[in-house]
């Protein structure tokens, strides 16, 4: 699945028939943007990015595009989750039209998950669909949101409730740019890396337990962890592009995570997505343990690893109030995966043994959340 | 292709693999909405309609849904082209979320092209795609916009520049509701009916020349004209769902039409879409004649038929100023079909002999428009 090139560049293919594409992972791959856009036949490329990323990485990308003879136009949005809104979607679309992005041209999303989701969605709906290159600059975006074609924006009642499936034509995951992330951001993205081990790869989880410090430090272990994560996601997406079955496994921890993010109104100072996922993973294991599906010891092992890297694992780790179990249940009921009023949970029978459950009575989930919320507040690193 | 049932109900199939669906055409088919939604497995149905249509047709549709045991929620938008906006898309999406429309549920678009395009687009992006029933209530929507899966909204720089391909799961074209249209609205929709004859069906055009008064009067000739139009469109869409080839033929007259609508800022008091199409069809024939592709006599025959039913055929038929040739060329350059900066025109070698042209120098189009704009203003029915 994964091809290691001499210069540490790793290429992960995503097999989706005539929507297949490659994920290029390695130090400095952003410099390939211009040649890649040219190879795809684009004349005009709009680079959508946020103010923070623009200051760090926009100039070399623009230079690469211009060196390849491409007309490149930057579209800069504010950083933060609140940018995934109808208002910013409209602004980005207006920018793409002003840049005369036509069918055959490209949108290049340069940034984290927010930029990737917003710019990818704009590409999906501009002229009923133009192509996109995802150039993720956060660990979370490199291992999750840039791969698989999910795009979208948030609404007041839930995250990502408006969007499209729109596969990129290429993903450029430059591992060098991760050095500009804060430790908190890198850690948050790491929660999604752990997720792939928990879904169906016990061995990868154990490798992460042993090597997480090298992954955080950078170099070959980091590239390998990202490539392994992308290959896991690509494999699941190839089997089920439109989430009618197995793709839902990728939502391990996410039904809880989305509700928690909703509960703090997507306030990134209190909780970023990866942190919500870390708590969600811990909750998925503890909920499964409470249902007798997995041993408490195995749930503890997952929680221990997440805490070892400094991630939160309890609702009470979130600063401030998040509301009661009824509020969280209501937020979970708005999840996209709701079918005929039934909640879908991804549960586990062990580390690397997740499954989709659609028959858990809501009362069980509510009782579990009530018990979690009643726990004494632990200190963050006790 | 077309199956005539004893009770005057006509069913036109649209063959698109696992996205195939039926168009049911005939008097009273709206009463089938409830049974149809139930057969599709929906629990909740949001009926998106506008204030005008709501007063005429909403109640029986709601009654039909409720009689079938469906939770039905109406979402009512203002009438008119300006409703195809980001602001109303956001409102409709909020309404769909409030109505708890989940995957498996349905959006029912009850109205003309504006409601169909807006509600269809909202369905396309809600939770990354829920199913839709199109229940077109204008002639234009019945023969064109409700069939083929194009959805979208307008932007200040052009019509339908933001949208999705999202095939409906069913189209219910109730021919009775057309009796509530104004003569102007019916006539405008008729321009799209004529278009199908001009694209590739000389015989249908000649049938319309002989029978147009019966089509306007209602009854079997009307149902037959609608069914024939839907079958023509379905055939082309089945060959080329995403408009990479032949589907562009459906845009005969539309590159000019969209520019003219842009030039009047979508002011429906001055020009409705079907009228713009009528002028666009006439311009396509006259432009083809100016290029020596078709005889002036054949162009005159098309113009004569359009004028006989009371449709406009010249830019000067539009009340007020529309700007000069440069302005119209700039508006045409924003057309979605622009590729690598080249305008695509649908031209004709005869009635029923249209073809896609991508190699017309812009200067020829501009000269043609300058000549058209310089014509002495004819009275509307001279």
Automatic annotation (TrEMBL), chains A, B:
Residues 189-338 form the 3-dehydroquinate synthase C-terminal domain. It holds the Pfam family DHQ_synthase. Residues 75-187 form the 3-dehydroquinate synthase N-terminal domain. SUPFAM superfamilies: Dehydroquinate synthase-like. Pathway: Metabolic intermediate biosynthesis; chorismate biosynthesis; chorismate from D-erythrose 4-phosphate and phosphoenolpyruvate: step 2/7. Zn(2+) binds at residues 192, 254, 273. InterPro entries: Dehydroquinate_synthase (IPR050071), DHQ_synth_AroB (IPR016037), DHQ_synth_fam (IPR030963), DHQS/DOIS_N (IPR030960), DHQS_C (IPR056179). Binds 1 divalent metal cation per subunit. Can use either Co(2+) or Zn(2+). Its cofactor is NAD(+); Co(2+); Zn(2+). NAD(+) binds at residues 113-117, 137-138, 150, 159. GO terms for molecular function: 3-dehydroquinate synthase activity. Catalyzes the conversion of 3-deoxy-D-arabino-heptulosonate 7-phosphate (DAHP) to dehydroquinate (DHQ). This is 3-dehydroquinate synthase. It comes from Flaviflagellibacter deserti.
